[in-house]
Amino acid sequence: MTERSWSGDARAREAVRAGTKVDFLPSGERRLTVLSGPSGVGKSTVVAEIRRAHPEVWLSVSVTTRRPRPGEVNGLHYFFVDGAEFDRLVEAGELLEWAEFAGNRYGTPRAAVLDKLAAGVPTLLEIDLEGARQVRRTMPDALLVFLAPPTWEELEKRLRGRGTEPEDVIARRLEAGRIEMAAEKEFDLTLVNTDVKDVCHRLIALMTDPLGVTTTTNREV
Ligand code: 5GP
């Protein structure tokens, strides 16, 4: 178990000094938490477990141009939109961040997130690396958590085992996964997804520990 210090407040001060436009600088309020990591690592399983067991946490619902997978519900898992509507949202400044991932666009509706944070509700975004980097720039007080697979081979196995994507899509996601794995050190801490319940437990503790500056990871470094 490794102790690491979280320095969101210091980063917020730096951003203000550098003149970066900052969306929200909570002081003493619940923080925004971002969960990121390579496709196939199990982010959506973690999110599903939080949705089931922790209604006190608000999960942002992203907008995407991707087609729904079987079982995905519009408004619950994503808001499914076409390219023109996505363009409109970007132009109107309605997205807190957005990124293109494996041929589709994904974005976080800004207003809902800011409302929840202002109301003091612990808020979680499950987004890709590019999105996490944007949040780091515009909301430096956010806590960025990297979800890592136990091994690269395990990640590949999970991505193929899902059986929902054709080979070329899997190849693109693995390619993106290599880039995402290399960015782990940009995050405040890493949780290794060996056990979904353990990851959720740690994540909830991080989110609900008011301004807890010291956090723990389950990655041995
Ligand atoms: P999937 O198609 O498997 O649901 O998601 C593909 C990737 O898009 C995942 O890495 C997921 O975290 C990311 N993603 C989902 N919603 C958003 C979002 O609103 N913004 C960004 N930047 N990435 C997102």
TrEMBL record:
Pfam families: Guanylate_kin. Keywords: ATP-binding, Cytoplasm, Kinase, Nucleotide-binding, Transferase. It catalyses: GMP + ATP = GDP + ADP. It is found in: Cytoplasm. InterPro entries: GK/Ca_channel_bsu (IPR008145), Guanylate_kin-like_dom (IPR008144), Guanylate_kinase (IPR017665), Guanylate_kinase_CS (IPR020590), P-loop_NTPase (IPR027417). Signal peptide: none annotated. GO terms for molecular function: GMP kinase activity. Its main location: cytoplasm. It is an enzyme of class 2 (transferase). ATP binds at G37, P38, S39, G40, V41, G42, K43, S44. Residues 30-208 form the Guanylate kinase-like domain. Its EC number is 2.7.4.8. Belongs to the guanylate kinase family. Essential for recycling GMP and indirectly, cGMP. NCBIfam families: guanyl_kin. This is Guanylate kinase. It comes from Nonomuraea roseoviolacea subsp. carminata.
